[in-house]
Amino acid sequence: MASEATKSVLFVCLGNICRSPIAEAVFRKLVTDKKIENKWRIDSAATSTYEIGSPPDYRGQDCMRKHGVTMNHIARQVTKDDFLTFDYILCMDESNLRDLNRKGNQVKNCKAKIELLGSYDPQKQLIIEDPYYGNDSDFETVYQQCVRCCKAFLEQSHGGQE
């Protein structure tokens, strides 16, 4: 084999403007820092249609800027194709998980492994709460959870290989 196979991950939340674009940006930075970004396809999406076409929430963008993480995403909804082309679909809470499992069950040959991103958290915070109705500290909490979970997910999915 000339090159290692590419892996793919889709981060999902309700609107795709708070939690999932933060997770996407955090994970992208992790793989870029490890110089393995060419081995990953990374994206994020929404279970709902509420925010399609919107940029990430400004509070999330502020939080990411503070941490020096680039964020570049326009909200979109999960498609049937996502279930066929992504290895992992990682979501933020039980409601996302129910929606994704329901949609995934309707897709023939669904290859995506659908899980809670929080299932990778070494601190066992299973749910990444929606910060939309919260304040800046809620966005910071989401960021910290995403960092922990994404690092652990990368370790497990990549086998710690450089």
Describe the structure.
It is a single chain. It contains five helices and four strands. It is α/β, with parallel strands linked by helices and 162 residues long. It has a single domain, classed as Rossmann fold (3-Layer(aba) Sandwich). It has a four-stranded parallel sheet, with helices on both faces. Strand 1, helix 1 and strand 2 form a beta-alpha-beta unit. The chain is globular and about 40 Å long. The two termini are 17 Å apart. The model has no long low-confidence stretch (mean pLDDT 94). GO terms for molecular function: acid phosphatase activity; non-membrane spanning protein tyrosine phosphatase activity; protein tyrosine phosphatase activity. Acts on tyrosine phosphorylated proteins, low-MW aryl phosphates and natural and synthetic acyl phosphates. Belongs to the low molecular weight phosphotyrosine protein phosphatase family.
Tally of individual helices: 5
What form results from the Cα inertia axes?
globular
List the uncertain runs: none
Q: Briefly note the CATH topology name.
A: Rossmann fold
Class per helix and strand makeup: alpha/beta
Q: How many beta-strand segments? A: 4
- State the domain count: 1
User: How do the helices and strands follow one another from N- to C-terminus?
Assistant: EHEHHEHEH
Mean pLDDT comes to: 94
> What is the spatial order of strands in the main beta sheet?
2-1-3-4
% residues in beta strands: 5-15%
CATH architecture grouping:
3-Layer(aba) Sandwich
**CATH class identity:** Alpha Beta
Give the radius of gyration: 15 Å
Distance between the termini: 17 Å
CATH superfamily: Response regulator
GO molecular function, one term: non-membrane spanning protein tyrosine phosphatase activity
Family: Belongs to the low molecular weight phosphotyrosine protein phosphatase family.
Keywords: Cytoplasm, Hydrolase, Protein phosphatase
Catalytic activity: a phosphate monoester + H2O = an alcohol + phosphate; O-phospho-L-tyrosyl-[protein] + H2O = L-tyrosyl-[protein] + phosphate
